[in-house]
Fold M28 family peptidase.
Amino acid sequence: MNKLTTFIVMTFLMSFAMSAQTVSDLMNKVSQDTLTKTIREFSGEDQATVNGSTVTILNRQSANNDLAANYLIEKLSKYNNLTINDQAYTVTYGSTTYNGRNIIATQLGKTNPDNIYIICAHYDTVADYCADDNASGTTAILEIARILSTQCFDNTIVYALWDEEEDGLVGSRYYANAAGANGDTILGVLNLDMMAHDSDGDNDFDIDVRNIAGSLTVKDDILTALTNSGLNLNVNVVNPGTAASDHAWFWSNGYPAVLMGESWFNNDETPNYHTANDRFSDLDMDYFTDLTKLSLYYIATKGSLQPIDNTVTATVSNISANQPGATYQWLDCDNNMTVIPSETGQTFTPSSNGNYAVEVTVGSCVEVSSCVNFNTLDIDGFNKESIEVFPNPVTSKLNIKIPENIHKAMLSIVSIEGKEVLKKPIDKQYIEVDFSPFSNGIYFVNIENEGRTLSYKVVKE
């Protein structure tokens, strides 16, 4: 192995040897690029794709927001471990009848499924765009769901996106009333509403709370999350806090809840509140990213991560799942997460460069790793394109030709049943292998060089 190869191998090992996730690890996966893309699409600044069509979600007023609701469903449906409920409702409050759609994604707890924590935001508006109110809260929910849906939790997490907040908190009222009537065990509600404007750059944010049903404990848990996260944010606790957002109906039903968002307490809310001038250009994305991180830190802590490791370690020759004693299925990230047939071991040896992930199952918990880029098969020219294995099918003699610069390679031939029928060193550029003693069938011809293995399927006739 030459010096360049040694450097590449060491860099690869250092870059992809990962440890089990912590809440801090998950918090640091919040991507400002992803937040920016989503909030621009959802507020109508950029086009989006919904059900295969290119669209612009310019207006999300309750009478005109089916496109927005469909966008949310499509986003959430891509994530693991979530059950999506398009909660359409028709309800009469007072003399007015309302029709709306709450979009609810439930991540069922593996140990205490009846213990529920809700993180929520309203997605409807009163005008076009409305980036801060409340594409910001909606985008934060989508980003948190994207990250946490890769994990298993002891408790249930509900990602809720309410309709008709602007019409009088209708969607959340409908849900909270039903939960109260059903006796649901909701242990905490974090409502995100307007969380991306910070004109003076002081990083202040508000927690609105009242001494109702343990809501002060939710507030204290967020303060603990702020301390433990190390984020550069400054909190204003507003008590008694406003009841003018979706947390209010959880208070009314005896559930602990708080509102979190930009600092109305310091008069630092968006100046374009409830107008079509509430645009992406007014947002502080660094501030918004940190508030999203804090929200994730809180809800992941309360969800209680199960100790399952879905990370991987990659070397120059293979990728290994770090979780022992599990069931594994390797996936091709470059082909829409397609299952790779027969690749169900803890260690996977790719036959070509690309991006790969592993699905790890322990009991009822199913987690999927991040995709890992594997691109070392062409180091020193050791790749499938540089090695010739022919003819295929073979009747008697199989020819193998390897590049001149490959030394000390090892050949092994394994039957479809997993029995190794031949193993020998390859000590020259061109060799012949006598297949005539072998029974007809499928064989795997494996060529190993300096910790890297290439595998060829050969048919004996």
